[in-house]
Amino acid sequence: MTAPVESGASHPGELAEPYEFAGVPDAFQRLWTPHRMVYIGGEGKPQSDAEHHCPFCEIPSRSDDDGLIVARGELVFAVLNLYPYNPGHLMTVPYRHIADFTELTPDEGAELSLFVQQSMIALRAAANPMGFNIGINQGVVGGAGIAAHLHQHVVPRWGGDMNFMPIVGHTRVLPQLLHETRALIAEAWPATR
Asked: Motif Histidine triad motif: where (predicted)?
């Protein structure tokens, strides 16, 4: 049995405060992702159905690179997820600020569907995924992070992409910066049919 660590303790046998162990070398490596606290804390998420301060309403006014926009259509656009589940995680979003799938016009629904197809084509060309998760989290209770503005997720998947990191370490490992991913997918985006 080993004796208690006494680093920082003022009397022999006294244990140090837990914060004093921060930075003490051990067998673990750590991936710090402090930028995730912005998402966890809800910063930038609309608190009501109001259009002001909606990130999906503001993104189209930015440049493609600054807004992480992959493609723009007449009624919808494709954008990289700022907090991706996997590399290349796209969202197809109507420009119009609506919360419910049933509010889409037939033209918006058709272009949203077309953009999902084009997302798959571009992601296959850029990153060769083995499969996809495609879906809409409808409403807060349904898991929508930004429930006030409808958006559909297109998540590329590879065998073994769900390793121990997200499960045990609550950390996602992304091998590429978002701006580099956006450029690759935008370059692979298919021409309008």
From this structure: 149-153
pLDDT interval class at 44 (50, 70, 90): low
Residues 6+ apart with CB under 8 A from 145: 39, 45, 83, 137
| This prediction's pTM | 0.67
Query: In whole angstroms, what is the distance from residue 45 CA to residue 72 CA?
Result: 22
Domains of the chain: 30-188 (3.30.428.10)
Which of the four pLDDT bands, split at 50, 70 and 90, describes residue 20? low
Exactly one of 52, 53, 89, 151 is catalytic; which is it? 151
Q: Judge contact between 54 and 146, C-beta under 8 A.
A: yes
| Helix or strand (DSSP H, E) at 118 | helix 106-127
CA dist., res. 2 & res. 170, Å (int): 30
Those residues whose C-beta lies under 8 Å from the C-beta of residue 146, and which sit 6 or more positions away, are: 45, 46, 54, 55, 56
The amino acid sitting at 39 is Y
Q: Which residue has the higher pLDDT, 136 or 39?
A: 136
3-class SS of residue 78: strand
pLDDT value of residue 183? 84
